[in-house]
Design goal:
This protein is 46% helix and 16% strand. It is of the alpha/beta class and 336 residues long. The longest helix is centred in the N-terminal third of the chain and has 17 residues.
């Protein structure tokens, strides 16, 4: 194992100078710092994590808080988690994943110890009970999601309201006048999960602006539920020609259900979705969609946190604009 004395000898400086150069605890000339860093890289030296934490009064660990509640689509959540972990490692930080639904108590338990330096919080609700604690913590935090009142917090996410609007506006441009949103499972709306509520707001606002008839239908994440929703839509909206799907597990079963009920996609029914690109591309009829930028959101969340840990001021709100990609599931409305 390479020791600090080996790096010092290689760089022609004292071990204490190596320590100061790598930790930033004391000012070192730029030339000396670069020489020390070059020696450390060449020899493959990595400071001992425990010693580094003691020296800096930091753990070099971030908490990623993802309560795995009912209705959450775990594969998509894990895309965010992988991005957070990958980016954190670039900053020499590890990630502690917290998945229990403990709310404020769980946050306080972690924040009151030296386990983590900062927190990233997901599955944000419009009126999230964790907000008062997050505002009062000495440890910095970033929320992936926007509560109804985000003042005093650092939040980042896809602009889900604009995403819902983009899907409806695309259908309206194609001449569709009756649209429906097949949304998240009912429990997600009961909790007032922020991203799901924002999609409904955007979908409804765009439909109202364009004079379209519209309806919103929560849907359990199962093929059987997709079939039931498809049947209900055709009963209640016989003029329906456009559907927006914001529920990843039912996207393909829903397309199949509509076709089994006699509607061709996109000949009779145009379908759009808010989902990862790889899912939209994998459906038998590739689906026009607004991408979920999980990698970008996770990366930027960590970068914001690193800047906060470094004492820099960061924007309170970062909304990523939606990008809609047209594929084979949408077409102009057929008149007649």
């Amino acid at each position: 194992m390479v020791k600090i004395t080996d790096v010092a000898r290689h760089a022609g400086v004292s071990p204490s100078t190596v320590s100061y150069a790598l930790s930033g605890k004391r000012p070192i000339s730029e030339e000396t710092r670069q020489r020390v860093e070059a020696a450390a890289r060449e020899l493959g030296y990595r400071p001992h994590a425990g010693a580094r934490a003691l020296a800096s009064s930091r753990s070099n660990v971030l908490a990623l808080v993802i309560p795995l509640r009912a209705g959450i689509h775990v594969p998509v959540v894990m895309q965010f988690a992988v991005s957070v972990v990958t980016t954190a490692r670039k900053h020499d930080h590890d990630v502690l994943l917290l998945t229990q639904e403990e709310g404020e108590e769980g946050l306080r338990r972690v924040a009151d110890t030296a386990l983590v330096d900062a927190l990233i919080v997901m599955d944000v609700q419009l009126h999230d009970p964790r907000l008062p604690l997050l505002r009062s913590l000495e440890r910095p935090s970033v929320m992936i999601g926007f509560p109804a009142d985000s003042e005093g917090l650092t939040c980042i996410d896809l602009d889900f309201k604009a995403a819902g609007e983009a899907c409806v506006e695309h259908l309206a441009r194609l001449g569709h006048r009756a649209v429906a949103l097949v949304g998240s499972p009912p429990e997600v709306y009961v909790r007032q999960t922020a991203f799901a509520q924002r999609v409904v707001q955007g979908f409804t606002a765009a439909a109202d602006r364009g004079g379209l008839s519209s309806s919103v239908h929560p849907c359990e994440a199962s093929p059987a539920a997709a079939r039931l929703v498809a049947e209900q839509l055709l009963r209640e909206q016989p003029a329906l020609t456009g559907v927006v799907v914001h529920n990843e597990p039912v996207l393909e079963p829903l397309v199949d259900a509509f076709e089994q009920l006699g509607l061709r996609v996109p000949g009779d029914l145009s379908v759009t979705a808010i989902c990862p690109d790889e899912l939209a591309e994998s459906v038998r009829v590739p689906v026009t969609s607004v991408a979920l930028p999980s990698a970008e959101v996770g990366e930027q969340a960590v970068e914001l946190l690193m800047r906060k840990l470094g004492g820099s001021t960061v924007p309170e709100a970062t909304l990523l604009p939606p990008h809609l990609t047209e594929r084979g599931s949408t077409a102009p409305r057929t008149i007649g």
